[in-house]
Amino acid sequence: MFSEPGLYLVYGYVHMNKVYNPSDSDAWRALQKLAMEYRNDYILDYFDGDSERVDHYSIDLDGLYADFSKHLINDEIRSHLQQLAEHSPLYERRDAMFAGESINNTEHRAALHTALRDPDFDNEDVATLVVKQLQQMSDVADKIRTGRWLGVNGDPIKHIVNIGIGGSELSPKMALEALREFADTELSFHFISNVDGEPLKTLLGRLDPGSTLFIISSKSFTTKETMLNANTAIAWFEQQTDIAEPLGAPNFIAITASHDAALNLGIPESQILSFSDWVGGRYSLWSAIGLSVCIAIGPTRFHELLAGAEQLDEHFMHAPIQENLPIQLALIGIWYNNFLNAESLAVIPYCERLTFLPDFLQQLDMESNGKQTTLTGSLTDYDTGPIVWGQTGTNGQHAFFQLLHQGTRLVPVDFIGVISDAMSTDTHHRTLLASMLAQSAALLTGEDNEQPHQQYPGNKPSTTILLNTLTPYHLGMLLALYEHKVFCQGAIWNINSFDQWGVELGKRITTELLNNPKNQTLDPSTKALLKRTNLD
Ligand code: F6P
Prior knowledge:
Layout: E1 14-15, E2 18-19, H1 26-38, H2 43-49, H3 53-56, E3 58-61, E4 64-67, H4 75-86, H5 90-99, H6 124-145, E5 159-163, H7 167-178, E6 188-192, H8 197-204, E7 212-217, H9 224-241, E8 252-256, H10 259-265, E9 272-274, H11 291-297, H12 299-318, H13 325-339, E10 344-350, H14 357-369, E11 387-389, H15 401-406, E12 413-418, H16 426-445, E13 462-467, H17 472-493, H18 504-515, H19 524-532
Parallel strand pairs: 5-6, 5-7, 7-8, 8-9, 10-11, 10-12, 12-13
Antiparallel strand pairs: 1-2, 3-4, 4-13
Helix pairs in contact: 1-4, 4-13, 6-11, 7-11, 7-14, 11-12, 12-17, 13-17, 14-17
The structure holds 6-O-phosphono-beta-D-fructofuranose.
């Protein structure tokens, strides 16, 4: 199943001494055949053939339950998908990731976000550092929550503005919204990400500088949007307070893996919260990037978030393949993506507080696995990461569900629901959950009708994930589940899920357009648009 290695043996480039190519494997070829054979099967028939199908195709783990019985997958398909995983470098890469090996081969570093939630991490230096950073974050959060972190005029902090983008915004914003039930209501939180000046200008117009804390969140501390927004906030603060060195005021905190860059900007040492470069931006919620969440829900609950993720880490490491949630979800995705030509995955949380989850998962999945280059540096001859999209139900039902029910494309759906929600009312919550279950049932069963336009073909696959409650612990589990699912798919596709070189070219051209708009090497369309937008 492996072609001969043509490359120097570097970790991750080879597997079992052969260059690994998933599409050149017996399991892959078998799955191609099975796709031809079974693609027109009815999922409902699988239930008739196996009265225990729901049990056989679901996993229940400590308050997180996943039902994947509504998929076009039978035992034979599942067995070959598992073979695909078992003959891939998945386990080697998983163990290497957890051990802190340098698995991000293009940036030459580890991807060790799991250490941030493992109090017993097996490397003293890393464990000590993680404990120290978590303690510093907890201390800052405690001081702010108890009114002991005072702004420039001696006022307690009331407004917290996180300035950051990508992983430095999406993850804390998503988690803070999800955990609103536990948030301190005396504090208000704001997220500024886009370089569009309007949101910041409007927000600043409403803020009192003394009681506002700006958290400049950037792993690199070079991101154009974040640095421009930070500088605008600094200038505003200086103008409002008339103090000569605004960054020395306790109204600014930097969170970064580039400690020196924050120091150079003028942020005092005591106001810099660091994390390590082995924490990827989209995996950084668990680090100091989670500060706004920690301030909102308090350190104890932030620890519960970490504990939930750690529980999922343990499960991923030790559960046998058939009971392994992230591996099973990854294999389902691969089945549709690589063998049944699905191009996207819809994620529909039935909980309004999970409103930013689809955005977060979009970055997690598409920035991790939107790759065409394998670990050996060749181009893949198979598709990799899907287009991930979605929004909360029931809203989505009144927008794009038409296409899911009667459109021509195959779109697997992840439904995510919360069984018990103290924040809602019984009537609303029952209706919400019933709506979710009705959608997955309608997609599966469909309905015949004499009128063609009223026919529902059905046989549309979905996974339903249920959390007992939307607590920090269960949110931690859910997020780690998706992190590891994405990781498993990347390992099977033989790509590096931890870099993001694809975003660099656009950044460089932006700089070029701003610095040298008369550049003659630009394409004619862009030149004309520069003129029309007065940028030339
Ligand atoms: O440009 C992509 C990216 O690097 C993301 O991976 C990252 O989450 C985001 O930009 C923000 O980066 P930083 O935290 O370094 O400002």
